[in-house]
């Protein structure tokens, strides 16, 4: 049974990584290609925590924008890295402690955000980072539940 679970996890992890690569780098074209990198960073980045999150939450309550936009942004960023909270500790046993997990996720997410900015396939948004970390932590909490651990042992 353990071998089957490992094979299923391995195959699903490959599909998950491919989906992440598509969503983060291949799904959208390079915007503002005519700007210098510094100008691009200036116009496309958000370093103010909760700026876009609060805008989207406000829009949900007051109907000031199409509901698809805030829901897809908030839920999408939250759910996008939830599986990572399960896959990382499954494949890398040292990441079973929450402090090691959070440190690993911070490094992974900052690296991905940096690559997005440099490649101009996205922007650095601290709110996306916050939602991604929160989603990964939810996944990690799911991983740590007795039910999941009982299934795996």
UniProtKB/TrEMBL annotation:
Keyword tags: Membrane, Transmembrane, Transmembrane helix
Positions of the VanZ-like domain: 13-144
Membrane-crossing segments per the record: 7-27, 74-91, 98-117, 129-147
InterPro entries, alphabetized: Teicoplanin_resist-assoc, VanZ-like
PANTHER family associated with the record: MEMBRANE PROTEIN, MEMBRANE PROTEIN-RELATED
Name of the protein described by the UniProt record: VanZ-like domain-containing protein
